[in-house]
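Write out this protein's structure.
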Amino acid sequence: MYKQFCKNLRHFISIMESDGGEESSRRKNAEALLPLADIEEYKKYKDSKKEEYRRISSLIYDISRYSEEYPSLKRLVWELWAYGFDIGQANEEFERTYEAKEVARLADLMLSTHYF
């Protein structure tokens, strides 16, 4: 499931980029999911405790809040956890570059094997 998510996400973003390169909210929300598609980069952030590590953990938490509405997200969050991603709400407030509900909807779409 995780591999399908990564493949679909990268393909979706490439379609959005080839669509004139305009900065749309859908593309912005899809790009917010990109850090979930690179396990090695995440491990570097985690080891160094960079702010990006907390942002990614918070993103996963935000996605998990919609798992009742989008059941496939439960499996994604579980798989991310199995790959070593941490899930937690950030203590400090930082500017989110995404809309949580839209990101959850896009993540659900990327998990679908019917997408491509």
